[in-house]
Amino acid sequence: AARVARAAVRGPGRTADGHPIALLANVGGPADAVSAAALDLEGVGLFRTEFLFLDRAEAPSMEEQRRVYRRVLEPLAGRKVVVRTLDAGADKPVPYACPDPEDNPALGVRGLRTSWRRPELLHDQLEALALAAGDTGTSPWVMAPMVATAAEAADFAEVARSHGIAKVGVMIEVPAAALRAASVLAAVDFVSLGTNDLAQYTFAADRQLGELAALLDPWQPALLDLIAATARAGQEAGKPVGVCGEAASDPLLALVLAGLGIESLSMAAVSVPDVRAALAERTIEQCREIAAAALAAESAVEAREAAARF
Ligand code: PEP
Ligand code: MG
Description:
This is Phosphoenolpyruvate-protein phosphotransferase. The chain is α/β, with parallel strands linked by helices. The protein is built from 14 helices and eight strands. Strands 1-2-3-4-5-6-7-8 form an eight-stranded parallel β-barrel, surrounded by six helices. Helix 6 (150-162) links the parallel strand 4 and strand 5 (167-172). The longest helix has 18 residues, at 119-136. It starts with a helix and ends with a helix. It binds phosphoenolpyruvate and magnesium ion. Residues 145, 173, 194, 196-197 line the site of magnesium ion (MG).
């Protein structure tokens, strides 16, 4: 019966009373983009560009990048696509972009920070994206990973706009950026919460250590507080706040995120139907009540139980 109900819900993500929550896919390259384009979803909320840079001695040329970006943008033409600039370091090692072995790579020169030493890597990528956008007549949104301060967001926005990128954003995956979300948002057009890294840095718990999974649970109230603060800042600024970490793929948590004011959820494409079905069963006001109950809980287990009681 659940499968029948799920199949019956189609089209753009929305709550029972029609409040829109865009349902987007996380993709890692052209093959993913082609399969996402064949599905009932509104676009791509996170295109991880790392695959192009991994396992090689030097960065791909601007022309090579342009060709690959074109193959991602083309099948999704007419839909939203959010491209993330190179997120090198820690769990995504790219030796030519990162410094020699660091004692704490997760806390090191990674993500946007790699552009401080190798600014040409970021320039080439942004130029390749702008060219591919022109080639395909599309207008991708572009965001930077691992931004900690509003000044970094402003610097990135200036560089991205100088390449002609129209919609510039940053990921919120460092607690400092979530705490100062209003200032970060003042510098950009949108933000996207990366809940995988945001959990890692909030709980000082390596995201790759299974032993610490309970701390990394996206239902942890401290993580929900940071998401709520960021969503509130987005509503006050009138700018979109999305979620593109694993948290977005949990149908019950999706209700909480919608209730907190998150406007788009990006996840593995296979998770979209269940999240769509969950949203379709609740009004936005019910989502707000579920979110309030989760935020009032004292632990991840309690937060999940509180939300499930509705
Ligand atoms: C995240 O950190 O939540 C995220 C979406 O990015 P990645 O998993 O690629 O670090
Ligand atoms: Mg991340």
